[in-house]
């Protein structure tokens, strides 16, 4: 495994700069001649500035090395409009009233679009009204406003491609994981919720002013944000990544079947590497842990979408052999649009199957794979589902449906053009697969619950409880006020019962 990396915004070195005549900026073709850009080095750093200048030039933008009268747009990072004006005053440069002061997020969006994008209030740098500097076109632009951002992920749309604040969310997720390893549930949730909110924002956080009015950002969270803005990295995250306990828990829990209690035990026994754990004769491993060590290299490598689709063919073929009318749906991250994952989850249900056929299906499927030499590991969990049992009050409670936790052998010829994970002399890969079988009338609740993301589901259940006086889990939705179970044929029905706008699976990556 690659070691975890510290979170950086960019180099923080300060270099003296000389202002003078504008020089020829680039041999690249200039496509947008009406725009002349100057990227401010202050609080950005030399390396990051040079990188952005070169990238912008490749995209056809005219970028000047030095500030001159021809510049129409100044682009800055982690600076307010007032900061830029003060810098200009120090340099004894008079700012034109037509000069645009813009956050680097505007330039990044331009380069992503391959052309200049519209300048909105969240792009334009704010100048304080008390500033004695000359009036600029951007002076009266209000700061980015945060309107109607809900504390609940189920009222926000979060896609995989729209995280403008990854430098912060990566840091929060490392801190949350560390608190989870230490079984500090409160602090873990604090940082998970903060990461979830920032992933949904339509703009990057560039100053502490931008955090005003955003929910789920307490003092501990804001301290981390401020540290990253000021120093380019979080000292708290750096300390976690250097912490021996965190590194050991990260390593141990990467083994299939190893949880926090086992990781704690191994750490207290003085183990720091998996080779030492495996070679110790006093340790007794569970069947799941033995499989985890045996197929470790395969299981820690990501499952590609092509591999997930190949597994889907295997599952559908096997299920159809016993229940032709059964519906098999990929859930989890792949249903939310992810291209890579750690395992592949499936929900299976049948409109016509008898109770006996449902009980036997997963056993028949796994027996078939065993006969074909494809079943490397299997753990059956029998159903404890009760039709009129109230939904669980625990947000993270497991459901009571019948399920199988498997490791399947996927031959590479089943993956179109994807043999990247093939080891020398080995034409297959071990893949983690979860199968869940639910009664047909519960399929909407099970599908919603197994699609995720984890934080989205947590907030959906919290919202049901605190805002609608209802109880929701993977089995049912119960209205506590009316004292009735609410029926649902689809996920859309469940959102409607809760009074929520429907959110597509690909927008639930909270």
Structural class: alpha/beta
Number of E-state strands = 14
Number of helices: 18
Mean pLDDT, as a whole number? 87
Give the overall silhouette: globular
Level-2 CATH architecture of the largest domain: 3-Layer(aba) Sandwich
Description:
The strands form four sheets. The protein has a five-stranded mixed sheet with strand order 6-8-11-10-9, with helices on both faces. The protein has a four-stranded parallel sheet with strand order 2-1-3-4. It has 18 helices and 14 strands. It starts with 31 loop residues before the first strand and ends in a 13-residue tail after the last helix. α4 packs across α7 (235-242) and α8 packs across α9 (260-268). β1, α1 and β2 (61-63) form a beta-alpha-beta unit. 37% of the residues lie in helices and 13% in strands. It has five domains: 1-143, Rossmann fold (3-Layer(aba) Sandwich); 153-241, Orthogonal Bundle (DNA polymerase, domain 1); 243-294, DNA polymerase, domain 1 (Orthogonal Bundle); 300-440, Beta Polymerase, domain 2 (2-Layer Sandwich), CATH 3.30.460; 451-507, Beta Polymerase, domain 3, CATH 3.30.210.10. It is globular. It is an alpha/beta fold and 510 residues long.
List the helices and strands and how they pair.
Layout: E1 32-39, H1 46-58, E2 61-63, E3 73-76, H2 81-90, E4 100-103, H3 104-113, H4 166-181, H5 185-200, H6 219-231, H7 235-242, H8 244-252, H9 260-268, H10 274-279, H11 287-294, H12 296-300, E5 303-304, H13 305-320, E6 327-330, H14 332-335, E7 340-341, E8 344-349, H15 355-371, E9 375-381, E10 402-411, E11 428-437, H16 443-451, H17 454-468, E12 470-472, E13 477-479, E14 484-485, H18 491-497
Parallel strand pairs: 1-2, 1-3, 3-4, 8-11
Antiparallel strand pairs: 5-7, 6-8, 9-10, 10-11, 12-13, 13-14
Helix pairs in contact: 4-5, 4-6, 4-7, 8-9
